[in-house]
Write a structure and sequence with these properties.
This protein has a single domain, classed as hpI Integrase, Chain A (Orthogonal Bundle), CATH 1.10.443.10. The chain contains ten helices and two strands; from the N terminus they run ααααββαααααα. It has helices at 15-27, 33-45, 49-53, 57-60, 88-101, 120-133, 143-158, 161-168, 173-180, 188-194, and strands spanning 70-73, 82-85.
């Protein structure tokens, strides 16, 4: 039996595929709101699973009920905090999920077994289900695929690997390049030749 790539080796989810998964989750109605909010938050924040799952309602929602457009996330293992921006789609999804779930401010945004947050294995099972329902091959994607999705989209749009490094919270640019599978060294003469003024 052929196995798919392992964790960090799995690819990103392309924009058209994200839209397809989003449509599958929206078609579920109210039962799909948690999964839609989770998908959107995972893509937008580009956080490792445990950091994402430790988010509470008060981390993303102001006391007046409005969803924050930018959050600051304290990460595990003494890593420096990272700021994350939510898209309008994510803000809407989170607002709807929090409203229907009747969560209190101290509750985990994505709970697992009470009183704990969701775990990486549970998220991976959900992702495989979403991918399969969208007609894609679940063996090609994992939790890290969601982290790569927006990071690669930003890199493609800006060409700024340093900015993507900061958004992912990596200490070294080499780690970011390896994670995204992009080369870090280019021949300066080759690059110079491609730009004709």
């Amino acid at each position: 039996m052929e196995q798919g790539p392992r964790g960090w080796e799995k690819g990103r989810v392309h924009a058209a595929q994200v839209k397809r998964i989003r449509q599958v989750l929206l078609a579920r109605g109210v039962p799909g709101l948690r999964d839609l909010a989770l998908l959107q938050a995972a893509i937008d924040t580009m956080l490792h699973g445990p950091d994402l799952f430790n988010l509470t309602v008060k981390d993303v929602q102001l006391p007046n009920g409005k969803i924050r457009s930018v959050i600051k996330v304290l990460r595990r293992r003494g890593m420096p905090p990272v700021r994350c921006a939510f898209s309008k789609t994510t803000v809407t999804a989170l607002g709807k999920w929090i409203a229907v779930s009747t969560k209190r401010r101290a509750d985990y945004l994505f709970p697992g077994r009470s009183p704990h947050p969701m775990g990486v294995r549970q998220m991976n099972r959900l992702l495989k289900l979403w991918i399969a329902e969208a007609g894609l091959d679940p063996k090609k994607y994992g939790n890290e695929s969601l982290r790569r999705t927006k990071a690669l989209h930003i890199l493609k749009g800006t060409g700024d690997l340093e900015m993507v490094r900061m958004l992912l919270g990596h200490a070294k640019i080499e780690s970011t390049a390896r994670f995204l599978r992009v080369p870090t060294t280019s021949d300066p003469i080759s690059v110079s030749r491609t730009f004709d003024i």
